[in-house]
User: Fold these one by one.
Assistant:
Number 1:
Amino acid sequence: MVNANFDNITIVLKGPKFPGNVGSAARCAMNMGIGKMIVVGNRDLDDEAVRQMATHVAKEIVDGIRHCNTLDEALADFSWVVGTTARHGSGRGPVVSPRRMAEIVVGLSQQNGIALLFGPEDTGLTNDDLRFCQTLVTIPTVGFKSLNLSHAVMVICYELLVARMEKDGGFAPKLASAKELEGMYAKLKETLLAIGFLLPDNPDYWMMHLRRLFSRTTLLAREVKILRGICRQIEWYGDNKERKSS
């Protein structure tokens, strides 16, 4: 069995509409060995309805649900975010299968916090939500693409459990957190605007491509600090050159 750490994996539900789906998702997660859940937004879910669908099996997960107002807050401490999407397109980026996702995540879970992010039942995750994600996964279906929220949670968690039992994930280093990455992206955007690489009327278009570039690698915290340091040095050089020329 691979040296995975499911204690480092958390289900994150953004804006769930129905309390029964939250309870069912908690039960599915518990069945597959994942014991933590975050709910973003919608604090008005009927607690009794959540518990009824979770049953006593997932009582521990329901009792421990952490509520956050925004995705920034919910994902800040995670080093790897898996976003689920049924929609494809250039604005969403490349996607992998649940099986491939599991092969990636199981090894990373040894030393890194992993968030499995699911969107609202009616709309799913937006392009803006997906900017936090290093991996995007689509569950293949025949015909109708939409799955019940708890069904999607079950499929993703099942694949993780199978990968944990069958694959050797090897060693995975401690990665930068989402908070550290967002700080790097903000500094990178500021610097690239200052040197004229990004167009001020639509800087996020190229930033989306840079995010995808970096998401294909595993950035360590010290590497994020190096990149931010390079940005600061570029800014210092530009300011110093401007002072000398004036």
Number 2:
Amino acid sequence: MKSPTYHIPFSKTSLQFSLPPQMKADVLVSQPVAPIEDVNAAIQSALDNPIGSQPLRNIAHKGDRVCIVFTDITRASPDHLLVPALLKELEIAGVQDEDITLLCGIGMHRSSTPAEKVVKLGTEVVSRYRVIDNEPQNPDALVDLGVTPGGVPVVLHRAVVESDLLIATGIVEPHQYAGYSGGRKTVAIGAAGEALIKYTHLPAFIDHPCARLGKIEDNPFHEAISEAARRVNLRFILNVVLDDNKNALRISAGDADLAFNDLVDFAKTVYEVPIDHQYDIAIGGVGFPKDANLYQASRAPSYLFFAPTPVIRPGGFFIIPARCEEGAGAGVGEQRFLAAMRDAPDVQWILDDARLNGYPPGQQRAFVMAKVLEETNVIIVGSDFPDLISDCKMIPAATMQEALQYASDRLGFDCEVLIVPHALLTLPVLRK
């Protein structure tokens, strides 16, 4: 009997593969939900009926200095639709173009290119408004707002702090540390200074049992970014939940807490999918833009590992197709991740050093991946830079067949395989 053919995202296309006949596979996808047919109409409806807030056109006033923080190119948020809708509301309110700043929330990622700004916002918006990037290492661009009761230094971009009206876009989806992304995170991390990003990504947060995918209750990371957003008075958000194909499923606007919670409640019904047992191998898809570099692509194995219960058994394999045409990534954080992974003698050294000495922002991804590699193996398929994969203590494979052969040579062909085509948007939850 011929083995079935599977497809998994790879860059802007997909990879096709079959499993050896002896391997038994389950495919896990998010819960099916019909996408929104008229996204622009849904955006306008959300703006007309905000949750826990007056409409934006009633909040904004002529003379207000307004800052809209939007996501960078590594996020699939449809900002080219969200931001123009917000700008229209501000125009109705009488806010002048010169009083509006659009800040790309790059966090510690590399700066966005002019072409990426156009992709995110559209040519008309980029040519008409002031569009800038976060500058997490530029003291002149940052304002120190003190320390939270939990010890978190709140340092954020001046355009955010000095605005009269602060707005954020974002996508609500499972997140490694925050439980769910979006909401306040676009501002509190995307527009943050290095000190804030560093503190919230240290082992004290990442090792915490409540800093898990899908969990916001009692989550110290979530609490820290919520407090940071409150200190700069994030007044209004416009966020979206997407499906595996980046179609909008739900759009909400309004109060940063209430609108976010509305989307999280919905997102849980879409992304969280039950499984009955752990597996020997998990094949996780990423796709563009996340698989453009190893820093982002490595989220796939760590998301599956840091599900409420790890998806694979100790000693198992994650197989992740990712082209990684940008190598490890060009940003400061990505280069710190690369140096930590490449220069350490082994993964245990990475863990011990991080817990003893801490690390700068970006290097937390090395700490997370060391935790994954301490118990499992990661194969990256189809990378443009296989030597880079080896340097980062992962296993390069040119094809899916090569990866499967490598894993089966060590585990035996009689393996149980979980295929998760969209590993960043599907949260496997082991039934109790």
